[in-house]
Design brief:
Structural class: alpha+beta
Helix content: 25-40%
Order of helices and strands: HHEHHEHHEHEEHEEHHEHEE
Number of helices: 11
Largest sheet: 4 strands, mixed
Distance between the termini: 51 Å
Bound molecules: iron/sulfur cluster
Number of strands: 10
Radius of gyration: 19 Å
Length: 262
């Protein structure tokens, strides 16, 4: 029954593409600017908390070769590992700085900065394009800003992957459990199935218990900082206010909530 429902929803999604939803997505992306709806802006401004992250790149780069944040995330969320890059599932991953911030001064990039590994994750955008296009509400935004995933509601249409300008979502082309050491699976977090999209959820399950994201906890360099942007006294807010920070592709209007210190 479950497969039948999923197949039906997938067919319905494909039909919707043919009937005119596709131009809507293209308009969303092609315009180059995603305007925040008043509801979304009001939600962000009025929320008691607005969780965000700061990535301090000089601190991160001071420990070359370290992938502790990725390892902690993968272990916590049962993220599979596959040799074949086409099957790769990424919640936290590394890309060269020059590719992450291609608009930065090319003279600095050519000075060696461009190849430095830069940690990436879902930006938990204030105005998330992925949420707008999901036909089943399998992805949604909490009042505290975290962009969530309901793996059971996902029909695998991948509209969210098209809409996300940051490549922050992965699709399970094969059963992800084939890429897990089942003896080390975290029983407190669900494993996923083939045909489902997944991404970082900022460790909402840990935050709701008063914790911090697993990547933040694992980083010995303290290069990752998590906190409440709406709290003027939080360390994160003070850093974002006082330091020069970058966000990815600000011109798109998605308002990323992962800030980078360079
Ligand atoms: Fe959605 Fe992509 Fe923004 Fe994450 S980074 S909230 S997946 S648009």
């Amino acid at each position: 029954m479950r497969t039948d429902r999923r197949q039906f929803l997938r067919i319905a999604g494909v039909a919707a593409l043919g009937l005119g939803l596709k131009p809507g997505i293209e308009a969303l992306l092609g315009r180059g600017l995603v305007e925040a709806s008043p509801e979304i802006l009001a939600q962000g401004a009025g929320a008691a908390r607005r969780w965000a992250m700061v990535v301090d790149l000089p601190k991160c780069w001071a420990n070359p070769g370290c992938t502790d944040c990725i390892g902690a995330c993968d272990q916590t969320h049962n993220v599979p590992r596959f040799e074949d890059e086409k099957k790769a599932i990424k919640w936290v991953w590394l890309e060269p700085y020059g590719r992450v911030f291609p608009e930065q001064d090319p003279r600095l990039v050519s000075a060696g900065l461009g190849n430095r590994p830069t940690p990436l994750l879902c930006n938990h955008c204030e105005n998330p394009a992925c949420v707008r296009v999901c036909p089943t509400r399998a992805t949604w935004q909490r009042p505290d800003g975290i962009v969530m995933m309901d793996f059971h509601r996902c029909i695998g249409c991948r509209y969210c992957m098209v809409a996300c300008p940051y490549g922050a979502r992965s699709f399970n082309f094969v059963d992800p459990r084939a890429g897990l050491d089942m003896d080390k699976v975290n029983a407190d977090f669900p494993t996923r199935t083939r045909g489902v999209v997944e991404k970082c959820t900022l460790c909402a399950e840990r935050i709701d218990k008063g914790g911090v994201p697993a990547c933040v906890e694992a980083c010995k360099q303290q290069a990752l900082l998590f906190g409440d942007l709406n709290d003027p006294n939080s360390q994160l807010r003070k850093i974002v206010e006082s330091r020069y920070t970058l966000v990815r592709k600000p011109e798109l209007g998605t308002r990323p909530q992962v800030y980078y210190i360079v």
